[in-house]
Structures are given as C-alpha cells and as structure tokens.
Amino acid sequence: MVSDGSKLGFYLLLAPILLWLAVLIILPHIGLFVVSISERVGPREYEYGIGNYVTFFEEPLYWRTFARTAIMSIAATALTLILGFPIAYYIAKLTRGRTKTTLFLMCMIPFWVSELVRTFGWMILLRETGVISNALQYLGLVDGPVEMLYNDAAIMVGLVYTSILFMVVPLVTTLDSLDDSLIEAGYDLGGTGAAILREIVIPHAMPGIVSGCIVVFMLSLGNYLTPILLGGKDSLWFTGMIYTQFITRFNWELGSALGFLLLLLSSAVVFLGLKLSRQSLAETMGRA
Amino acid sequence: MTTHTPDLSCVDLVKDFDSFRAVDHVSFEVPQGSFFSILGPSGCGKTTLLRMIAGFQSPTSGDLRIKGRSMIGVPPNKRPVSMVFQHLALFPTMNIGDNVGFGLRQRGVAKPEITRRVEDILARVGLPGVAQRRVDQLSGGQKQRVAIARCMVLEPDVLLLDEPLGALDLKLREHMKIELKALQAEFNTTFVYITHDQSEALVMSDNIAVMNHGRFEQVGPPQEVYHDPQTAFVAGFVGEANKIAATVAAVNGPNLTLRTEAGTELKATAPASGLQSGQRAQVFLRPEAIGLSMTPGDAGEDNVSQGTVTAVLFNGANSSVTVEDASGHALSVALPQTGGFADLRRGSTVYTRWHPDKARLYAAEG
Amino acid sequence: MIPTVPQPAFAKWCYRAYVLVFFVYLALPLTVVCVFAFNDSVFPSLPWEGFTWAWFFGTEDPFVGVFHERAILRSIGTSAFIAAWVAGLAVFTGTCNAFLFVRHSFRGKALLYILMLLPLIIPGVILGISILVFSSSIANTLEDATGLWFDGLRPGLILVILGQYSFITTFATLVIAARLQKFDPSLEEAALNLGATRLGAVRQITLPFLMPAIVASAVVAVLMSFENFNTTLMLVGSDSPLTITMFDKLKQGSTPVLNAVSLLLIVASAVLGLLSLMFQKRKD
To answer: What parts of the sequence cross the membrane (chain A) (predicted)?
Structure first.
C-alpha cells in the first residue's frame, strides 16, 4: 500500500507503540510474575520459589475469596446481559431518529460520571438512613429503618449498574446492524417471535454479546470501589485482598502472586468466552 | 369448474400514512399460476402494497384475500405467502441449507425430511449440493435462486418479489429475468413482482399493473400496456416515447388534425380519445413507429417532415437518431441496423414519417 | 419484535414499562446525589432540612462549600494536570497506531494488534500493581547502583499518568483507527498528484479528516482519566487526584460537600461528553 520510500516513516510510527507496550504492559507483567515467584528469606534477600502460590492454596480465605469473586462476577455478567439485552433491542430496533439518540445518550451520561459518584449515589439510596429505607417506612411497609447496604445484593446492584453500559453499547451497535428485513423474512417464513430471537437475532448479536460479557466480567472482577463501599469492610473481594497485601501489609510478593492469579482467571474466562462463541479478540474488542 | 378463486385479490385497498395516502383504492385479482407485475416509479406505493400483502403493513381500509380467505388481522408468519426481499435477506449466520430449511423448521417438520426437501428444492433451482456453503460463498445470481428456494420450499400460495434484481449488474439481470420466468413456469406458483424497471415487467409478466400516486393506471398483458396505453402516464412510463404538445385543430370522426406550437400540422387516428376541437393534447409516438428515409417520398402522405440529424446514438439493436425539424422540434427515431442508414451522420438531411394510427393522444394535464 | 410486525398491545406496554423502569434505575443514584447537594444538613441523607447553597459557597464550619475546600480544589487541579498529560500522550500514540495499523502491512501485525488490545482485558488493579512493582524494582536497582534517589519511579504523579496512559491509549487507537479506516486514500493521492509532499498531504488532507476522532478521543481520555480509580489507587503518591480524595473523604463519613463535587462532576462530564458527540456528528 505504501512505497518503500516511507521505511523511515514506518519505523517512526512503530516506535511509540513498541515503547508503550514494552515499557507499560509487557515488562511490568513479566516483573509482576518474577516478584510473585520470589520468597523473602532475609532482609533484602530473595529466593525463587512457588511459596506465595502455595500460601494462596493453603489459606482458605484467599481461595474462597477468589472463587467468590469469580462466581459473583459471572452472576453479575449474566444479570447484566439479561437486563441489558431488552434495552439494547428496544433502542436499536424499536426507536428511530431523535428518540433513539436521546435514549442512547440517556444510557451514556451516567457512565461519563466517575464510578465513585455512582456508587456514592447507591450508598445514599440504600443505607439505613437512606432514601429507600425512608420511603418504605413512609409507605408503612416496614416499621423501622432497614439497612440495605453491606450485603451481596447491594454489591450486585452496584456491579450491574456500573457495567450495564458496557453491555448495552456493543449490543446496540450489533443489533443496529441487523437488517429489519432479516427479521421480516423470519416472520414471513413462518417463524414465531421466540424462534426469530433464537435463530436470527441472537446469532447476529453474538459478537456484541461476547464483547459485552467480556468487558462486564472484567470490570466486575477487577472492581474495587463497589464491593468496598457497598459491601462494607467484609465484602471479601479479591482486589481488596491484593490492595491489602500491597498497601497495608506491604507483602508485595504475595500480592503479586494474588494479582497474577486474578490476571490468569480473567484471561482464562476471556479465552473461553471467545472460544465458545468462535469469535476472535480482534473482531470482538476491535470495535470502538 | 370454470369459476376459479383467484390466488390473490385486493378489494378497494387503501393505506394512509399520517396525511399521505400511499395506496389509493386499489382493486385487482391475480389468477392461480400467473406472473403479475406491479410497475411504477419509486414512491408510487408499490412497496407499501406488497408489504400489505405480506402482512408488514395493515391496510387502512379494504380487504385482501388469498385463495378467498381474508388476510386482515392475520400476522405475517401465519399467511400462506412468502416474500423474496429486495436485498434477499438471506440469514448470514446460517449456511444455505439452514436458510432454506428455516421455514420447515418453524413448522416442526422432522429433520431428515427437512434435509431431503431442502436438497430437492435446491436441485430444482439448479443449485444441487450447496447446502453446506455459507451465504457469502455464493454469487449474486446463486443467492437469488437460494432466496427463491427458501420461499418455494414452503409451497406458498403466492410468492412476492420486491425488486430482487435491482442489486445485480446488467448482464446478470438480463439472465435472471429469463430464469425467473422459467422458475415461475416450473413451479406454477403465483408470482407478484414489483419493479420500477419496465423491461423486467414486460419480459416476465402475464399481467402488468402500472401504478402511479397510489393508484393503478392500467392493468393488462404486456403487449396491451405497451401498445395501447390508457393514460399519458402509462404511455410515458412504459417504453420510450416522443412526447409532442399540440392543439386539436379539427375532429373528423376518428381522424384528428392537430397543430403544434411551432405550427406543424399532425394527423392522427384516435377513435376514442374524446378530444374536442381547440383542446390541448399530448401526442405520444414510439421511436420505432417513425419511419426514416433519405427521400421525401409520395406527396400527400401524412406526417412527413424534413429534418436534420443532430445525434446518432449507436446502441446495437437499440440504436436511434435524433432528428430536428425546421421548427427546432426534436424526435427520437429508432435506427434500423439492417443497412441503408449505416452512413448517417450528424448534419445529414432525412425525412421522417409516421402513420396516423401509430400516435396515442391524451388530453393535456392541467 | 419490530414495528412492522403486529404485536399484542399488552406485550408492547409491558416492554415499555420495563424500559421506563430501567431508565429510572439509571437516573436514580445520580439524581439523589444531585438533590442532596442542596440539603441544609451535615449528612447527605433524609430528612430534608431545607434548601441551601452552602455546600457550594459556604465558608463557615461545618458548612464549608466546594469552592472553599482546599483539599478538593487542589485535587481537582491534580486531576486536570494528570488528565491533560494522559490525553495528550494517548492521542499522540493513538494517532501513530492508527496510521500504523490502517496504512501499513508488516510481519507480526496481527500479533501487535492483539497486544494493543490487551490493556482492555487486564483488570485496572493489575495494571496498577504491575507498573508499581516494575518501576519500584527499577528504582531499587538504580538506587543501589548509583546511590541517587529516583523519586519519579516511586508512586506519584508520573506513575499515575503512565498507568492511566497505558490503557487509555487503546481506546484512543480504536477511535482514531475507525475513522482513518473510512478515509478514502485517493484523496491523499489526489493531493500528491497536485504537488503536495507526502507529509504535507497527511497534514492538510488526512489530519483534518481525522480531527473529529482526535478530539473525541481526547475528550474520552480526559473523562476516563478523571474517573479512573483502580489503576490510580495503586500508583498514587502524596498528590491525590479527585477520585482518591473523594474516596478518602467518603470512607471517613461523608458530608454533602461530596454531593456538591459530584454534581459539578456530573454536569462537567455530561457537557464534555455531549460536546464531543456533537462534534463527531457534525463532522461525519
């Protein structure tokens, strides 16, 4: 496409990306792995070994939290998909022109705002002295204040809220590209609503579903704010443990091992998701 | 039994969008096994009409019957019609076999039976053994045939076709016209075909309805629509025609004398034009109805005029010349390729002549 | 399912009701945050004690408004500083990447593209700790070798900027490459044909075409930088950006001053986001 005369230009373009990826992505992760297999044997003295990983498997708190984080993230992803799909379908297929743009923007605006602000909003709503508790008392449905914060349901509400846009946007994009005439053809050939959803709409939306699920799962797994603020001190989220090891305990070796395990888990789930749906990372994530 | 129920009949069908009437009191019947085309310019309401038949629009008033059964309130998936969409709407996420088998699956037909019928129908449209291929592995013409097979496997009472040839290139379009007609004959199913391309309609149809502004202007066999257009719109829309504005100077039974604005006198035979002396009229003349010669011919012959060739448009069998007479009025004249005019050049002097009964006369609009 | 296919009215109304409930769910937290910014009470909760502007302009304890709260003002400045650097770096790298991926074919391109996408699937916390671990070990090595201090490699502004830049660049690349993909290269060829130099053609024809995407990705970068928490948390030093400051305050027990900051953030983000969208629309 471009002549040989631009060899220099090519290398100039190649330099920033190599620098960026090498210095900020690849080398740090190698470094993380190296630290995770280091064991402190004396002051400023280290040996290589898998002791940190052994600690993880021997200490039930660690691996239980790990499993809990994974399961809740999967649940949050599934919930987000179920809640978000009808909305995306509504925006993409049942509205046009101005209404469509407005609804889409209304979906976007909350997510331009810091996650902290959003979570803060849920705290105001859910806490004992919060809006919902007061509303329930006012309506006479409960006698005294109800504490709705600091439980798993609150974490779930927050996780779904935080990530639903990342489900809705890719879904709207893929559903938008589904030609109405395909749905009409489905009806014309005798299909029922359910059959068309199953055989035409969902297969077409698959890339959007996969990329939405990957992003939502990632965001939930790596979330720190929502579990800490909505789930309270004992929320038992894996990122919280990593933070504790790094900042409070100053045990970077164990922290690195925990971080590396989290990375492995998220990579494995992404890989599985792509394999199961026969998508590639480039085509799934490459759509901005 | 001679009183067949028509496969499709529309009775006084009307469709309004907000303040706009897309289909305006349309009634017609399509007999079993015939190829019926609805021909009209874009925006004439033909797509709306077709979509009402398929069930994607509901008529504001009127009735729509298929094999005598009213379809009002029947959802599209319960109608015995199938549609070939403009861009075919083959499901890209399924292979060819699954596309064609879609309708059968919805009916709950057993799997081996589906496979058998899909193979069978694909063979009948001339595509045996493509069931495992992906949609994007087929050529444009093959996709057309798959789209038709996908409908025909359901044995619909009526097959609707929404300008399916529009996206093809010229050569393939010419080929598909013949093929579609052959497929229709082979399946002996009623086809309702909409198009804005008059040549598609003329070549394939048993009957053509010419549609304009939501109304049917004329319904009839292709020859009738071409040679005996009932309205000025039909005369202008179907086939090529020279259009001459003139005023009726004298009416003598079926024979009319007209005068153009430039003063040229025209003679025309029109038994039922209903035109009165002094009325303004439009004269339509097919390019092939005009004769060309290098000599003036017999004196006293009607409608002979001398002119100058201003352009020679060579297009094989469809070649024509533009001839301008002394008053500056231009006529497009078909140029026979049988010799004699091979050395016709721009600037040549020629004589044009046409028989009075070749002209079609309509009262001028407005 | 689609407007042209008739559906029972009841199903349609249920669907609409669900959509309405969904949007209420979306709007609720932000609405309460905004409303309680005006509550004349030291707690951002009911009961409603009356309307006040104190949480914006108040000067007297305990009603110290945003505009007189030094810690918050300073952290807004820090955030803006970080965001400006991140946006600049990310847009520059993103533009280079876009040209590289759209215009060039080379060995290993597919692999490089996958690597470019990786930051999207690495949890932010992990990005943060990996950069923290890596820079600290470099700093340790350098300090051991030279005896000098390398504060830039310890948690602080530089690491925060690098940490955010490490994943925001991917977004910038995707946005700009998508637009460059739509560019008709024959326009550039026409410019060359008319006597422009290669660089001149890119500068005068291609870059103006890319401008909407560049602006949009810069705005997105600023928004993402402002709201980033996970990566920043691991890399922050003594100068905390806004989200970290707010988080600390929130943990200590919140006052409506946080609502006031949040309200300002919501308005600013919405305006910025809408502006970038409008800019993109108008140029498309």
So the answer is: 12-37, 70-91, 103-125, 153-172, 208-230, 250-274
